[in-house]
Each structure stands twice: as C-alpha cells, then as structure tokens.
Amino acid sequence: MHAGIDAIGLALPPLTLELAALARARNVEPSKFLEGLGTTRISIPPVDEDTVTLAVRAANSALENAGVAKSDIGLCIVGTETAVDHSKPVAAFVHGLLGLPSGCRIYETKHACYGATAGLQTALDWIRSGSARGKKALIIGSDIARYGLRTPGEPTQGAGAVALLVSDAPRLVAFEPGKVGTFAHDVNDFWRPLYSKDAVVDGHYSVSCYLEGLEGAYRAYLERADGPRGEGPFSDRFGAIAYHVPYGKMAVKAHRHLRGLEGDADPAKSFERLVAPTLVLPRLVGNIYTGSLYLALASALSESPADLAGREVALFSYGSGSCAELFSGTVQPGAQARARASGWRALIDGQRVIDVAEYETIMDAREAMDTRAAHDADGPGPRFLGVRDHRRIYSA
Ligand code: HMG
Q: DSSP E strands: which ranges in the chain?
C-alpha cells in the first residue's frame, strides 16, 4: 500500500529577530552568525505562544491545504522536546482545541529533534499495515528551541511547528517501506534537565555526534537500499537531500561529510543542486527542533528551481542523545506547485522584526509563563492564557 505525506502545514510565532542585530548587541562580528552559522533570522515566541498553540495552527493549516476533514483523522502524534506537562501530552490539548474525533489515537513522542520522525515512521507503518482503515494521520513536530541568553547556543534558537498529513494517497512525497537506515548511540551532546527551561549543550561535541549519526545512518541505509554502486556518488540519485537544520552551516558540514564518505573530492559542486533549496526557509526561521527537517523538506518543495517530480528525496533526521535516521521518498507530480501555493514564504515575510531589547524582555517574561494566572485573550486563538487550578487554559 502507498503511504506518504499528503500535505504540510507550517506555524510560526508572529515575531522574529535579525541575527545581525543580536550579533551587534553581543559584540560579535555579524558575519559569524550570518555566514559562520548560516542563519539570518530566528523566530521568537511571545508569552502566549507555546508548543500547543503552534501545533494547533500547523495542524489546521495542513488540514486546510489538503482539504481533509477532522473526522478523517485516526492518529495524531506530536513529537516535541519542549512539552508543556510531565504527563498530559501536547497531543491531548491539540485533540481538544482542534476537535478531533474521539476514536482518534493520540500521544506524544520524545527523542530530541527525532520525535516527529518517530511519529512519521509509525504513521507510515500504521497505514501500510491496513490498521488505518482509510483514516489519515496528523504528525506534528512542535518546539521552542531555547538556550540561555549570551550563550553560544543563543543564535541557534527558533520556534515553530510543522504538521504532516499522512495518508494512503500522498500528493507530496510517497515513501517505500525499507528505505530507512537507523543509527543510535547513547551520548551527552544536548539535553534539558527536568529543572531547566533552557537546553544544556556541549556544542562542538554535538556537531561531531550529528556527523557520527549521519555516517551510521547512511551506511545502514546503503545496506538496505537497492540500485547501482560504484558509478560515482550514490547520493547523485537524489533530487534533493534535506538534512536536519539546527543552523544552516550544519547542513553544509553534513553534506561535506556525506559526500566525503562517497569519495567526492568536491562536495561543494553538488551542494547548490541538492541542498541549497532546502535551506531557504530554515535560514529565516532558526532551529525548530522536531520540525526542522520537515521545514527543510517544505523548503525543497517550494524553493527548488528543478523539476523534482518522480525524483527521490533523501531526509536525514538527527535527535541528540542520540538517534539518527536517513530515509527517502519520491516526490509526487504536482507536489511543487502545491507547496508553492502554501504561503510559507508569506508567513515568514509577515513576521514582525523585534529589536534585542524587546527580545530580552520576552525571554525574561517567558521564565514565569507556566505559572502566571490566566487572563482574557487579546486576539484570535489559539493562545495560551495562563494557569488556573493547575490547568493550562487556552483560547479557542
Ligand atoms: P561557537 O563556539 O560560538 O561558534 O558555537 P564557532 O566558534 O564554532 O564558530 C562557528 C562558525 O563560525 C565556524 O565555522 C567559524 O569559523 C565561523 P566552522 O568552522 O564551523 O565552519 N566564524 C566566522 N565566520 C565568518 N565571519 C566571522 C566568523 N567567526 C567565526 N567573523 C555552536 C557554535 C554551533 C557550537 C553553538 O552555536 C551551539 O552550541 N549551538 C547549539 C548546538 C547545536 O546546534 N548543535 C548542532 C548539532 S546537534 C543537533 O543538531 C541537535 C539539536 O537540534 C538538538 C536536538 O536534537 O534536539 C541541537
């Protein structure tokens, strides 16, 4: 049975911060953030924005893009590493706010940035096995990537959600079973202790863990994938390669590493064709953790000048801690036109640019957001209004 991504929905906070301005405020050369890290802007969530509000908006957008009714959803998994409760899953809030059917299975997955990929693989197998019985799945990656002010991680923040509508009649990308290579390794490269809102990261080590994961997953993928060998780089068969994008430069390093494994002495030559289109949107949003890889996929579909119809795209998912997966799927006819009509670029262009003082005020206020008393909504929902009787309250 066919299974794949039928539609993609994107949600971003309404605010954004230019990294050139952040660099000046931190006495750093702007070129370090813009070129050295390869990111231009990072999305900043106001205090009434959280993983739930982003997830709901992304899911609504995916459903609208696909023209699919909520009653058709039989599985909803939210991958997140910045959940809002130790027990109640973000998926339960999403279920309520979206009005999904009571027969819909809902839960949350956590493995750093890998969580949404775990959900996607589960949904594909659920459909292929016949258990879905014609129903569709909503797989959402929703996160607020947050490091401490004035830390090396600060310019690699971001916030956003990507929702994937997964079905047996995918109009964007279809995935064949088995074209997956996995690599897991227990490492301490990035984590978030229970007592902290900010992630702890061993930054340079995390880069080497990412590359180790890429190498392991790629070797595992090659063992399972069919096709010609020994005729130039295997990855030339792909129309695009979407890597997990914590910051733009990481995808440059990843591509260099992967092509090096294939004996390519000039990896930069294939970068423009295979990778550059995947970075157009992520460079303007920053790291959105679980959604980052799927933002890169959305970027490939909407920004690539090449005709990708019928071509295979590779996706590399990395979750610190760690689990890495390389898998591939085939772009469906008409997918790029659908992606271009989705309005993702307009969403980014519509964000309000804030200055560093406003950003720091918001970051300070977010410290207390999980305990502030609920108040009335001051705009259209869904918004996080605060807490009453230990319950999180949202406007519809
Ligand atoms: P840093 O130490 O501040 O930066 O932290 P640096 O000194 O390594 O410089 C960065 C790059 O800028 C270097 O280029 C410099 O040469 C260049 P590279 O050698 O890497 O090619 N540079 C300049 N370029 C132009 N003009 C200049 C200039 N100065 C320097 N003037 C680091 C960088 C990424 C470590 C830090 O931001 C960090 O800790 N970020 C968070 C961790 C992270 O994103 N890790 C990525 C891999 S792990 C991952 O992806 C998983 C994750 O998403 C979490 C999850 O799974 O949930 C994070």
A: 4-11, 15-18, 41-44, 73-79, 105-109, 136-145, 158-167, 173-174, 180-184, 190-191, 200-201, 238-243, 312-319, 323-331, 352-354, 383-388, 391-395
Tally of CB atoms within 10 A around 287: 28
User: To which residue do tokens 């679980």 refer?
Assistant: 290
- pLDDT at position 157, please? 98
**What's residue 375's pLDDT?**
84
Q: What pLDDT score was predicted for residue 230?
A: 62
Q: Could you report the per-residue pLDDT of 357-384, keeping only the tens digit for each? A: 999 999 999 988 999 888 877 777 899 9
Residue 295 Cα to chain centre, angstroms: 5
**Is 81 labeled as catalytic in the residue annotation?**
yes
Crossing angle (nearest 10°) for helices 248-261 and 203-224:
40
Atom of ligand 1 nearest to the CA of 287: 53
Retrieve residue 40's tokens: 């231009």
Q: What's the number of domains the chain is made of?
A: 1
Nearest partner of 181 among 121, 113, 240, judged by Cα: 121
Q: Which residue owns the Cα nearest ligand 1 atom 46?
A: 207
Q: Which residue has the tokens 């002495």?
A: 265
**Rounded to the nearest whole angstrom, what is the distance from the C-alpha of residue 36 to the centroid of ligand 1?**
7
- Identify the pLDDT of residue 76: 98
Return the residue matching tokens 């909520």.
70
Question: Can you state the percent helix, strand and coil of the chain, rounding each to 5?
Answer: 40, 25, 35
Active-site entry in 76, 113, 209, 323:
113
pLDDT < 70 regions, the chain:
226-230
What are the structure tokens assigned to 257, written together? 């590493």
Atom of ligand 1 nearest to the CA of 143: 57
Please name the residue whose Cα sits nearest to atom 9 of ligand 1.
36
* Residue 258 CA, distance from chain mean position: 21
Rounded Cα gap, residues 108 and 106, in angstroms: 7
- The CATH number of whichever domain residue 249 belongs to comes to 3.40.47.10
**Which ligand 1 atom is at minimum distance from the Cα of 202?**
39
* Closest C-alpha to 22, from 356, 287, 363, 296: 356
Its domain, for residue 299, covers 4-395
Query: Max Cα separation, the chain?
Result: 65
Q: Which pLDDT score is estimated for 228?
A: 52
User: Amino acid letter at 113?
Assistant: C
Distances, alpha carbon 21 to alpha carbons 2, 34, 39, 120, in Å: 47, 11, 13, 37
User: How do strand 105-109 and strand 73-79 relate by DSSP bridges?
Assistant: parallel
